[in-house]
Design a protein that fits this description.
- This protein is of the alpha/beta class and 212 residues long.
- The protein has two domains: 33 residues; 177 residues, Carbonic anhydrase (Beta-carbonic Anhydrase, Chain A).
- 44% of the residues lie in helices and 17% in strands.
- The protein is built from nine helices and six strands.
- Strands 2-1-3-4-5-6 form a six-stranded mixed β-sheet, covered by helices on one side.
- Helix 7 packs across helix 8.
- The longest helix is centred in the C-terminal third of the chain and has 20 residues.
- The N and C termini lie far apart (43 Å).
- The chain binds zinc ion.
- The site of zinc ion (ZN) has 7 residues, from helix 5.
Length: 212
């Protein structure tokens, strides 16, 4: 058995010791089900684990992770919409009160978008390139307005524009727009800075990012 797998098994033993030795939070979560108030859409990046970033307990966060934390627009193509299915479950069944899209610096997905922007092809069998088409408007905006920026600044702009774009895509789902209008649901775009651990919130009204 590889040392990586052994480490996982030891980790699970430590987890069970912490959570299953006595009456714990899991007894309630099993008996009554999960009732998280918050959904988080974050990147698959191994450095951006929402439960860890927010020091959250089991049952607190309903999480979907994908490459570059992108939200697709509402589409009825009959294909396999994993992120949209998670959104539907969180909003219509769990009735979460907040959806937070958690972007981050040094995002590999956004880097792939910048490196391959001219090569992106909708008919490609390259799944990453096709998926990153969702963030193409962010790349185009960055490219038009900020061609003189440094490489790192280009990445930051792209990461943040993609978050704003995903925030708009959330509103294309009728059951999200409805609940936002009824003030039952709030949408947030947050940007996690990997080098400091700090988080900035996107203020849509004046288009700024402010530290929480
Ligand atoms: Zn990422």
């Amino acid at each position: 058995m590889s040392s990586e797998i052994k480490k996982l098994i030891a980790g699970n033993a430590a987890f069970r010791k912490k959570f299953f030795n006595t009456t714990t939070i899991f007894d309630e979560l099993v008996a009554f089900g999960q009732r998280p108030k918050i959904m988080i859409i974050s990147c698959s990046d191994s450095r951006v684990d929402p439960a860890m970033v927010f020091d959250a307990q089991p049952g607190e966060l309903f999480v979907v992770r994908n490459v570059a934390n992108l939200v697709p627009p509402c589409e009825q193509s009959g294909k396999y919409h994993g992120t949209s299915a998670a959104l539907e479950f969180a909003v219509r069944f769990l009735q979460v009160e907040h959806i937070i899209i958690l972007g981050h610096s040094y995002c590999g997905g956004i880097q792939a978008l910048i490196d391959n922007a001219e090569l992106l092809d909708k008919n490609s069998d390259n799944f990453i390139a096709q998926w990153m088409q969702l963030a193409r408007p962010a790349y185009d905006k960055m490219n038009e307005e900020h061609a003189s920026l440094t490489e790192q600044e280009k990445n930051t702009r792209c990461e943040q524009y993609a978050l704003a774009n995903s925030l708009e895509n959330l509103m294309s789902f009728s059951w999200i727009a409805e609940r936002v209008e009824q003030q039952k649901l709030q949408l947030h775009a947050w940007y996690f800075e990997l080098s400091t651990g700090l988080i900035a919130n996107y203020e849509k009204t004046n288009n700024t990012w402010n530290e929480l």
